[in-house]
Amino acid sequence: MGAGAPERAPVRRRGRRTARPDPESGPVGGFADLLWRLKKEAGDPSYEEMAKLGAAASKSSLAAAAQGRTLPSWEITWEFVRVLAVDRLGRDASATEKEWREQWQRAQSGRAADETEVEPAPDPEPVVPPRSRVALMVAAVATTVIAAVVAVVLIVLNDGQGVERAEAGPVAEHDDSVFEGDITYPDGTVVPPKSSFTKVWRLRNTGTVVWANRFLARANEQPCKAPDLTPIPQTNPGETVDIAVPVDTPAGPASCKIYFKMADEQGRTFFPAKRPIFLDVRVSER
Predict the structure, then answer these.
(1) Alpha carbons 63 and 67: distance in angstroms, whole number
(2) How far apart are CA 34 and CA 286, in angstroms?
(3) What is the C-alpha separation between 45 and 66, in angstroms, rounded?
(4) Sheet bearing 196-205, strands edge to edge
(5) In this structure, what are the phi and psi dihedrals at residue 151, rounded to the nearest 5 degrees?
(6) What's domain 177-283's superfamily in CATH?
(7) What's the start-to-end Cα distance of the chain, in Å?
(8) What is the C-alpha to C-alpha distance for residues 126 and 129, in angstroms, rounded to an integer?
(9) Roughly what angle, to the nearest 10 degrees, separates helices 74-81 and 27-41?
(10) Are 239 and 205 in contact (CB under 8 A)?
(11) DSSP helix/strand/coil, 282
(12) Mean pLDDT to the nearest integer, 82-110
């Protein structure tokens, strides 16, 4: 910059502020406004922060839920609400889930009512002159006779050759899981600072797909440290598997609640509609 040139004030970039949805726009807009207000009440964290807090949904899905354009699925709704109302504001999980599920169902019912269209009355049938009716009847009889003759010819041609039956298509594969329980360190366990322990969960493969090359992916950051990806032993349909994750505790007192989702090597999650599994311990000298 040349001598004597006036200094330019630094340009401050402001992040985009999320526009509040219109609660008067309809059931979907009203429900989105409830989510928007909950987010503000919880300190207005970014959607990236909500994902780090353990919401098992993408940032774009969380953002879309509070925009009011479409009604989010119940699974996305609960992840949005859980990390804010339960984890951040400390509300009771069961009561909160019941309250918000009722709100979501009302919005869903209201949306369905708005989308219902009244079917237009059918056009009246044209009046056919008597002679035309006779002609139509003759044409119908002729068509029926011709169809019968064609059917007989086809039966004769296929006689003794067998009729080829359509083969049934392949059965679609189904990938699913059931959480069977905590094997070690149940929720609320007190663990000492500067220590290590292994958290173990048990899952069952209830689908028809073999679980191979799958991992348990950590979904958020907490004072306790755990690997980003933990291998899951190969599991056949119908089998159970115990998944062990090593955990290191911090040097001082803390509460640790780490969420995990099943994922592949690239971090793409399976079962996006299911809740994540988690460990929930308290770090203390006892």
Answers:
(1) 7
(2) 41
(3) 13
(4) 177-182, 196-205, 240-248
(5) -65, -40
(6) Immunoglobulins (2.60.40.10)
(7) 62
(8) 10
(9) 20
(10) yes
(11) strand
(12) 90
Q: Is residue 76 packed enough to be buried (19+ CB in 10 Å), middle (13-18) or exposed (0-12)?
A: buried
> Nearest CA to 203 among 151, 254, 260?
260
What does the block give as tokens for 61?
């899905």
Residue 269 has φ and ψ, to the nearest 5°, of -85, 150
**Residue 84 and residue 40 in contact, taking contact as beta carbons nearer than 8 Å:** no
Candidates 133, 65, 86; CA nearest to 278 is 86
Report the share of the chain in percent with pLDDT over 90: 45
Among 158, 140, 136, 72, smallest CA distance to 107 is for 72
Label the pairing between strands 196-205 and 240-248: antiparallel
Average pLDDT, the chain: 81
Rounded-to-10 torsion of CA 248, 227, 76, 52: 70
Q: Position of tokens 């440290």?
A: 225
Tokens at residue 237, please?
């349909």
Show the tokens assigned to 57.
């949904």
What DSSP designation does 212 have?
-
Residue for token pair 């094997």: 183
Query: How many angstroms separate the Cα of 180 from the Cα of each of 175, 201, 205, 250, 252?
Result: 17, 8, 10, 29, 32
Q: For 79-88, 191-200, 249-258, 266-275, which range has the lowest pLDDT when averaged over its residues?
A: 266-275
CA distance 267 to 258: 16
Would you list the domain boundaries of the chain?
A: 27-114, 177-283
Q: What residues are paired with 218 via a beta bridge? A: 260
pLDDT digits (tens, 9 = 90+) for 41-52: 999 999 988 887
C-alpha–C-alpha distance, residues 161 and 140, integer Å:
33
